[in-house]
Design goal:
It holds the Pfam family Band_7. This protein has 323 residues and is of the alpha+beta class. It has helices at 2-5, 9-42, 119-125, 130-147, 152-157, 162-174, 193-243, 246-261, 284-290, 294-320; strands spanning 43-46, 50-56, 60-61, 70-73, 79-84, 88-97, 103-114, 179-190, 268-270, 280-282. The radius of gyration is 57 Å and the shape is elongated.
């Protein structure tokens, strides 16, 4: 009977559970709802190309801890700020006032990204909106300062690389704010239409003058070449004139006679009939006659025969009249 009077521990727990069940159910329900409500603050997924900086309620920003890609579990009271650490591009247009008061509109493309190791300091000192707080204002300030000392014409034509120098200065200034600006690309430069037309006319005139100077230099070089060529021809003739002695001319005549003797053409040569004993070429018409047609040859033969008969008749008449 004594064992039956004292209930067991399990029985006591069941009795207590029955008595406390409504309260326990309410407590479990509250915990479940709390987990559902704070789930997105407790379990956080950092996507590819992103990094996180945690702000703790009781200790502040963790500047020495950068949370990488993946799943992380945090205290729901803390806040995780996610930054994109890939290269990003921002497009921005602004005006620059030249030293003569003309407005030049520049259209830029800025490639940038935050420095990964310094992401905590960037978040603490500047914040997620660092593009509009630091990068764009500082680039505008440097570009206006560097280009404001030049005319619109010089800016438009990038005289002596002034745009390049301004961009390099802006990159150096912005890089001191825990961000990496890889490049600043000038997409376009816009000037007032009348100024653009005057600049284009000036550039065309400069190109024309360069072309004219080039043609002038080419003509001068050609004149120098012709002068040198004429001087060479003059020297050549002077040398030839000095070297043409009678002995040389006689030798050339002998060589020409030998070549003529070897020629197959019909010719009559009188040896020793010329000056210095050189041959005289006669009866060159015979060679031309040989090349005529037969009819022409016959007519020439008949005329020659008639001429011979006339000569004979005249000779006979002359003989008869002699005593």
């Amino acid at each position: 009977m004594e064992n039956n009077e004292i209930p067991s521990a399990s029985l006591q727990f069941k009795r207590w559970l029955r008595r406390k069940f409504p309260l326990l159910f309410i407590l479990i329900l509250i915990v479940a709802l709390t987990l559902v409500f704070f789930w997105q603050r407790v379990v956080i997924v950092i996507d590819s190309g992103e990094a996180g900086i945690l702000f703790r309620v009781f200790s502040g920003t963790e500047i020495d801890q950068v949370y990488a890609e993946g799943v992380h579990i945090f205290n729901p009271l803390d806040t995780l700020y996610i930054y994109e650490v890939r290269k990003q591009v921002a497009y921005h247009d602004f005006d620059v006032i030249s030293n003569k008061g003309l407005t030049v509109n520049l259209s830029l493309a800025i490639r940038f990204r935050p420095e990964y190791e310094l992401l905590g300091i960037l978040h603490q000192q500047i914040g997620p909106d660092y593009l509009n707080r630091v990068i764009i204002p500082q680039i505008e300030s440097v570009m206006r300062k560097e280009l404001g000392n030049y005319t619109a014409d010089q800016i438009y034509t990038n005289e002596e690389g002034l745009l390049t120098n301004a961009i390099l200065t802006a990159l150096d200034e912005v890089g001191r704010n825990y961000v990496e600006v890889e490049d600043i690309i000038i997409r376009s430069i816009t000037l007032p239409p009348q100024l653009v037309k005057s600049i284009e006319d000036k550039l065309r005139q400069e190109e024309f003058m360069k072309s004219y100077e080039f043609r002038q230099q080419t003509a001068q070089k050609e004149a120098e070449r012709l002068a040198i060529e004429a001087e060479g021809i003059k020297s050549y003739h002077q040398i030839i004139d000095e070297s043409l002695t009678e002995s040389v001319l006689l030798h050339k005549g002998i060589l020409a006679t030998e070549a003529l003797a070897k020629s197959p053409n019909a010719k009559v040569v009188v040896i020793g009939g010329g000056k210095n004993g050189l041959p005289i070429i006669l009866n060159t018409d015979t060679a031309r006659t040989e090349a005529l047609p037969n009819d022409e040859k016959n007519r020439m033969s008949e005329s020659d025969s008639a001429g011979v008969n006339n000569d004979n008749a005249a000779n006979s008449t002359g003989l008869d009249e002699k005593p």
